[in-house]
Write a structure and sequence with these properties.
This protein is 49% helix and 0% strand. It contains three helices and no strands. Helix 2 runs antiparallel to helix 3. 20% of the residues are buried.
């Protein structure tokens, strides 16, 4: 299945560094985050669900509360990864 065919939730992991679980810090992660946001919008996902799913993914990866909070600040600040076509 091509990445563009995947639901937005399946794109969450690609927006984070594989080892450090930092959100959209590298150019490739930022592009994937922009694609994830676009997909979530196309799927009519509400903001609360969007952030809750990402936060849940971080917790499932064993991230501590401080790291989760820091990354969620970046997730919520969409100017870091909003790309206009």
């Amino acid at each position: 299945m091509k990445e563009k065919d995947m639901g937005w939730k399946n794109k969450i992991s690609g927006c984070f560094g594989a080892e450090d679980k930092e959100f959209a810090l590298h150019a490739s992660d930022t592009l994937r985050a922009a694609e994830m946001l676009k997909s979530a919008c196309e799927e009519n996902t509400g903001w609360a669900e969007y952030v809750a799913e990402i936060e849940s993914w971080l917790v499932s990866q064993g991230c501590n509360a401080h790291h989760v909070a820091k990354q969620m600040e970046r997730v919520k600040d969409i100017k870091n990864y909003l790309i206009y076509d």
